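Ligand-bound model needed. zinc ion.
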Amino acid sequence: MKITLLNGRTCDYQAYCGFSLKVVNSDRAKRLSLRIDEKLHVPVLTIPKRCAQKKVKEFLDANHDWVVNMMARLPVAAKFSQGEKVSFFGHDYTIEHDKTNRTTEFSGSVLRVSGGEEFLHRRVKDYLKEQTLKILSEMTVNKAAEIAGKVKSVAIKDTRSRWGSCTTSGHINYNWRICMAPKEVINYLVCHEVAHLVHPDHSADFWNCVEQICPDYKETRRWLKNHGKSLYKYI
Ligand SMILES: [Zn+2]
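Prediction:
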């Protein structure tokens, strides 16, 4: 990414430091900073207004090893594979590739996957998304009814940055990866989004509303914060 400096010169910091880098030019930032975006799998460099190019380069040099180290610790992107166990709404299923099966389906504690093996990951993901939509649609409507919230639509998204969202007009979206979290955590996410039907913010009233329909929200919210990123390894 090329950055145009105040003096009109550009500097490609990504090329300078030798690894992928997301550069954010911020009017509000007081100092240079680097963090790792674990979901996007990329280091993020924030540059405050009027920061000299020389200073940015020195900062990148000083933090080079830290970035490399942190990136090495991130979970690698994974694809579903034959024989692997996958958790779906709290139940474990073993993935079994079966070319002769006509459809992909849950069968006891097995997730039987049809088609060519090269499409296994895609088929598992599509199937989980489809099943997740069914279950979450029902859960959402039921939870919304408890607080007289009106749901317009429920959709499943493949976002890399958030677990769910709710528009003021009642459209709720969920990240498909939530299906692999413990059941209580999925329930918390539903309650969180549903509470936004009544409170479109994160005010004290909003959290009271969440607690009303999800009494254990503090623990489940913590789980999502601490462990949720592990579910992002699936691409
Ligand atoms: Zn929220």
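The CA atoms of residues 3 and 10 lie 5 Å apart.
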